């Protein structure tokens, strides 16, 4: 097996999405996930000299990330004063210290495809939005994408509710036609 | 808007209810009137389909987008990391 090398300069660009995606499905909070990913990169930087070159860069980072996620779980658990986490990582003592790199499961980038599609979908939506008149686009975005409620938007733009619905209706019709042409 | 207790509603009202229901703001009675209207009005049925489809893909996009870092978040991460790297 070829010797793997660490190159921290490319970490963020190459792995931040993957690590973040890995974290967010486990902790379900964007802010916490961001912190954990950041800590992971810093921890990786600090312990670069411990890297043995047996695993790939990403596997190694994921193994650190897993520790961080477990730490997070433990923290939120001990806050409530419960649950001591016990895990038997490895039965034989020989491989002590190696268990991190050994035990990482690395399901290869199963999200790659959906991500590309998602980027294109996002682009198509933004493209169609940009073709709408500015006011319609803003209100549509606030209502549909940002999820503000009717009242807030009405106050913001100083319009009545039925006014808003007319704007939404026009925007939706235009968006549907545009997406029909460019996406479906 | 004044309450309309008539079960049969004109197309413009049907489409209004359809828009509202995309944001879960239509009442049950309104939704019943809408589905009754959709049972005989092909034009509104078509509109309803497109509208629902639009809602679906936008929410799908929203849901997926939040699973990834956006550009700003990535940049701030990159900045902080570079600062750490140069120490």
Structural write-up:
- The complex is a heterodimer of chains A (184) and B (87).
- Chain A is 67% helix and 0% strand.
- Chain A is built from eight helices and no strands.
- Chain A is elongated, with a radius of gyration of 24 Å.
- The model of chain A has no long low-confidence stretch (mean pLDDT 76).
- In chain B, 74% of the residues lie in helices and 0% in strands.
- The longest helix of chain B has 24 residues, at 42-65.
- The A-B interface holds A 8-9, 11-13, 16-17, 20-21, 24-25, 30, 34, 37-38, 41-42, 45, 114-115, 118, 121-122, 125, 143-145, 150, 162, 165, 168-169, 172-173, 175-176, 179-180, 183-184 and B 1, 15-16, 19-20, 22-23, 25, 47, 50-51, 53-55, 57-58, 60-62, 64-69, 73-74, 77-78, 80-81, 84-85.
Mean pLDDT of chain B: 84
Major beta-sheet overview of chain B: none
Distance between the termini of chain B: 64 Å
Q: On the 0-100 scale, what is the average pLDDT of chain A?
A: 76
Specify the number of helices of chain B: 4
Number of strands of chain A: 0
Fill in the keyword field for this structure.
heterodimer, A: 184 residues, mainly alpha, 0% strand, B: 87 residues, 74% helix
Secondary structure elements and pairings:
The complex is a heterodimer of chains A (184) and B (87).
Chain A: H1 11-27, H2 30-46, H3 57-79, H4 99-102, H5 112-131, H6 134-145, H7 150-157, H8 161-182
Chain B: H1 11-22, H2 28-40, H3 42-65, H4 71-85
Produce a short descriptive summary.
The complex is a heterodimer of chains A (184) and B (87). Chain A is mainly alpha-helical. Chain A has 8 helices and no strands.
